[in-house]
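Here we describe the complex-level prediction in full. Unlike the single-chain runs in Section 2.1, the two entities below were treated as one system.
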Amino acid sequence: MPLQYAGIRAEHLAVRAGAGVFDVSHMGQIETCGPQAFDLLQHLLSNDVRRLPEGGAQYSVLCNERGGVLDDLFTYRLAEEHFLTVTNAANHERDLAWFVRHAAQFDADVVDRRDNFAMLAVQGPQARALLGRLADGPLASRMHCSLATIAGVPLLACGTGYTGEDGLELLVDPDRAGEVWDAVVAAGAVPAGLGARDTLRLEVCFHLYGNDLSEDRGPIEAGLGWCCREQTGFIGAEAVAAVRAAGPAQKLVAFEIVGPGIARQGNAVIGGGVVTSGTFSPCLERGIGMAFVPAERAEPETELEIDVRGTTRSAVVRRKPLYSKEH
Amino acid sequence: MADASYPEDLLYHAEHDWARVDGEEATFGITWFAQDSLGEVVFFDPPKVGTAVSKDTAYTEIESVKAVSDVVAPLSGEVIAVNETLADAPETINEDPYGEGWLVRVRLSDPAEQEALLDAAAYEATLS
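The structure predicted for the assembly as a whole is:
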């Protein structure tokens, strides 16, 4: 996927106002099936897989024994004993090895499906209606998945995304993804690149692995306690429970820059902490970002100072998400 | 955004800056290639009037949605004016990089330095 097609700002605003399409085929997929597929995933994933019905979608993190985050993932339950988990490109091989290693204790098969799927994300308030006109039947609602045919191409349609807008992610045979892309663009979706994908996700405070999540940080400090169900006993649950009980030393907050300037990943928060993601918000028209800060400075409206390449910039902690439709 | 262009009346620095020299003074800006590489400019934080700038050395930053970039002085001297309109309309740098999107005007300390700059054809040759 290119960084941009027409320009980050134009693509971003098109997704907020209408519909955009992203080629996210770099994402990986792991299929888990068999009589104990559920048990394997309950052992690996932080969320409670019992709450994932057939035809459902669920977000979770994958933790190591120390409670550090190995990846953040969506899992789709295609059937009772059949799951598909979407991985981040840079983590795919490590995730796959982790799944395979732990599968040995279960009656479950883990299959690398990265080469079997291209992935198109069609996002925006008009995305669902646009796809509906190309589909031969109803499409999966939010947080659900189902087989569908779009522009004559059979695929898996999932009511998920990474922009804060309604829309679907389409998992499709790589040989036929071009047909779907062309049909979606012809129907009016604006091609959008990695740049807009990043500005869109950061406005709604979705995490990016490698920026806001890493093996050195846990889900509680990253604000992902809501997708951790320690009582299921997933790998890392004890460490996660301990941090939840004691309270994390640092928390991931969202911030807005006051005045000009943009903080970027790696900029230091004066007095402790670090910016994990930073960009210019096309909707809010100012610098925004997320940062780990000491827990006592994580309350909304707390004033921060950030060292942006030698210049001190003022920022204010804001409630997540930074952008919502009411703006 | 306009198509690529490199006016022949300007002198160019290989770090993608231009200078329009007028006797002892010069106007500086960034080239079409530079603004195209940066993408949509969202902030320009100008140096203060009176700041000394030194040929080949960064004197300010331009920030786009995707990145921040140093701007290198093509010639040495002292800043005598900055383009105040860019504070509210930084996208002018994209729209008109050789005109309304100029960055600073400088009183040159050594006008002979311009001998080392490139003409439009030589600069364009560095881009291919």
